[in-house]
Amino acid sequence: MIKIMQDLEYIFNPRSIAVVGASRNPEKQGYRYVEILREFGFEGKIYPVNPKASEILGLKSYPKIGDIAGSVDYVISTIPASGLPKLIEECSTKRVKAIQLYTGRLAETGEEESIRLEEEIAHAAQKNKIRLIGPNCMGIYHPKEGISFSANFPKEGGFVAFLSQSAGHTFEVVYRGGVRGLRFSKVISYGNASDLNEVDFIRYLAHDPETKIISVYIEGVRDTKHFPHVLQEAARMKPTVILKGGRTDAGSRAVSSHTASLAGSRAIWDALCRQAGVIQADTVEEMVDILVTLSFLSPLKGRRVGVAGAGGGGSVAMADECENNGLTVPPLPSDIVAELKRLFPHEGNLIKNPIDLSVTAEGAGIMLEALLYAMELIAKHPEFDLLICDTAVERVLESIEWQGMFQGIVAMFIQIGKESKKPMAVVMRSADSPEEWRWKSIVTEQERCIQAGFPIYPTIARAAKAISEVVKYNLSNATRQ
Q1: Which UniProt keywords apply (predicted)?
Q2: In this predicted model, what pLDDT tens digit does every residue of 183-237 receive, in sequence order?
Q3: CB environment 272-291: b (16+ within 10 A), e (fewer)
Q4: Is 30 helix (H, G, I), strand (E, B) or coil?
Q5: What CATH superfamily is the domain 1-136?
Q6: Residue 314 CB neighbour total at 10 angstroms
Q7: Angle at 372 between CA 368 and CA 377, to 5 degrees
Q8: pTM of the model
Q9: In this structure, which CATH number among 1.10.510.10, 3.30.70.1290, 3.40.50.261, 3.40.50.2000 belongs to the domain 137-296?
């Protein structure tokens, strides 16, 4: 294990990076890799390599790797696959430690010639003691070191790691998670895994001090011998979330043409994950929801939820969605009911669970006062394990009235969350808001909630499903230890 940790240190913390296939064309990936390294503030040496250019983005460009005067730890290659065997020989002479191969159209095509070429590339790297990421991948995002493959990724680092065979899912998880407050320690797009594979990266992340949560999108296992043990070891050390691609027949067929992997049996996979103690996600959206839950909610120990949200049919739907997704919505305890009836005898709809947020502008002040007190009682009561607050406000209200009410509800939730030790989740719907003023207000208030440390979900059903999965994991993990 010590060797793989040392090998990957040159990838995640290189002192110098050469971009082979660097370009002066802003539309080429070879240009973007150089540009992003500079934008993200990579402090090591950056060496563009292109025999047709003397300078790229203000940096001296070199005809080939061997012409670079300084040492090179890590190479990012965007050149055609046919040139890779020669590049590996040149990198060996330069004592390069690792190469990321952006290049695709190899074994994933299923063509014999391409499969043989990928095998030749892997053999050449092994012979010369050079580690490979890919081919057919985007590479590494390590914000703490200023390494990225997208200019739009957050520059701040965090403690969530994501390992993905799919480049598309890599972008999706970082983008979707980023707007909901997730920040990442290390993200790896590893493609066909002709050398470094899921076992190597999971083992590294399990022992990585920057990483507290591990998440993985995997289509097929390369190292079937060591994978079960390494996965179990990682899950024992840190919460580990896995999304498996190719679980259906159609998905399995698609996997082989995407990353040249064998998908394997769903039943065997499910049994493996149960035994290892990992959390399984069914979709990218659910994976992000689970990561948000693990990152923002204090340890959840039960499923009993107090809910505040839309009135009438909305309250019914919220209760159904919570219980359909594994949570329980118990009635308000008699002592809370008695206290609320004493103080607010005319607020009949309020005195139940879910608590009714359906109000008119005229009654907003009194209602918010009653709601705040009701939520405070629930937050202190031992009969509830957590709170879910749905910020939906009646659409019949005009712009100024709606925004005032919405901001008041969010401020109230934040106040309750600061004063209570009970976990609290917030639901904010933005995608179904066609009015610009409305979704801008939602984005602003969402950021307030994130800054206050609350997890944000787009629907009550997704909140309930993710929270339920994490509760199940916590309870199972407690019995396992």
Answers
A1: ATP-binding, Ligase, Nucleotide-binding
A2: 999 999 999 999 999 999 999 999 999 999 999 999 989 999 999 999 999 999 9
A3: bbeebbbbbbeebbbbbbbb
A4: helix
A5: NAD(P)-binding Rossmann-like Domain (3.40.50.720)
A6: 18
A7: 150
A8: 0.92
A9: 3.40.50.261
